[in-house]
Amino acid sequence: MDHKNVSLITYFFITGISDDPFVFLLVLLIYLMTLGGNITIFLLICFDNHLHTPMYFFLANLSILDISCSTITFHKIFTYFISGDNIVSVHQCLVQIIVFLLFSCYELLVLAVMGYDRYVAICKPLHYNLLMNFKRCALLVVICWICGIFEYLTFIIEIFKLTCFKSNKMDHFFCDIIPFLNLTCNDISFLQLYIYIVGGLVVGFIPFFLIFISYIFIIGTILSIRSSTGRRKAFYTCSSHLTVVICFYTSLSLQYVTPSSARNLDISKYLSLLNGAAVPFLNPLIYSLKNKDVKAAIRRSMRR
């Protein structure tokens, strides 16, 4: 394909979607369970007065993000099996990449805020209602969105400048940043540097560092509690959040931190599937099984 034709590419064929009906049914089942679990958590938080606390306010935001990320990731798979359409325009692909990155960034920031919430609840319980009132929680959510947009603003401007592509066949099941950059024949050295510095250090490491520091103080406070019952209760209140953080960061690290020299596109697809399906599916499950308040809210809802 010559350079003249390459530069005229306006759409991609998403060729990484399997045509095996079993794969489609499996993805559909996981998506429906993810949708059902997160919607259940969201509705419980909205309508159960016992869950009108900062922790569950942030959890409701997390549920919306999980639904959004799963829908963005899998909608092309469903479109392909329903209509056979595996074509996406370049601009649609760019929008999908940007929205997915923004939502992932926002989820990392929300997890960091939830870590701060657990720190205040355990280390400063007498000041909890003052420090984590509704206005402050809403402000933290708005700040997370603003930070996410500003962190990727330069990236958004630069990625829309990419106009030259080596091929219009993307071996993936949705528009992800790595296979997209592999297709372009423009100079992407700045974008790669931006991804490593801003995406890796600012977006990834700083929220992780804040969560890590929060749990250092939390563990110190828990160890200072004299009764074993009190220690167990304090740890139980943050075990769900800690489990979700470990799952999310593990999936992101496997998908994006792997050196480019050792990265395999087939493995990258499966890791994207893990990040887009397993983590949003596990989040409501973890909070349902490991959280007494959520289980009590489910029982109250079933009785009603």
Description:
- The protein is an all-alpha fold and 304 residues long.
- It has 12 helices and 3 strands, in the order H-E-H-H-E-H-H-H-H-E-H-H-H-H-H.
- It is globular, with a radius of gyration of 21 Å.
- 34% of the residues are buried.
Write down how many β-strands occur, each being a DSSP E stretch of 2 or more residues. Answer: 3
Q: Given the structure, what is the number of helices?
A: 12
Low-pLDDT residue spans: 1-6
Assembly annotation: single chain
Form type: globular
Q: Which class of secondary structure composition applies to the elements?
A: mainly alpha
With strands numbered from the N-terminus, the spatial order across the biggest sheet is: 2-1-3
SSE string: HEHHEHHHHEHHHHH
Summarize model confidence as the mean pLDDT.
83
Terminal Cα span: 64 Å
C-alpha-based Rg, rounded:
21 Å
Biggest beta-sheet profile: 3 strands, mixed
Helix content: over 70%
Query: Which band does the percent of strand residues land in?
Result: under 5%
Strand and helix layout:
Layout: H1 3-7, E1 11-14, H2 21-47, H3 54-83, E2 87-89, H4 90-123, H5 128-131, H6 134-151, H7 153-159, E3 169-170, H8 177-183, H9 189-224, H10 228-256, H11 265-289, H12 292-303
Parallel strand pairs: 1-3
Antiparallel strand pairs: 1-2
Helix pairs in contact: 2-3, 2-11, 3-4, 3-11, 4-6, 4-9, 4-10, 9-10, 10-11
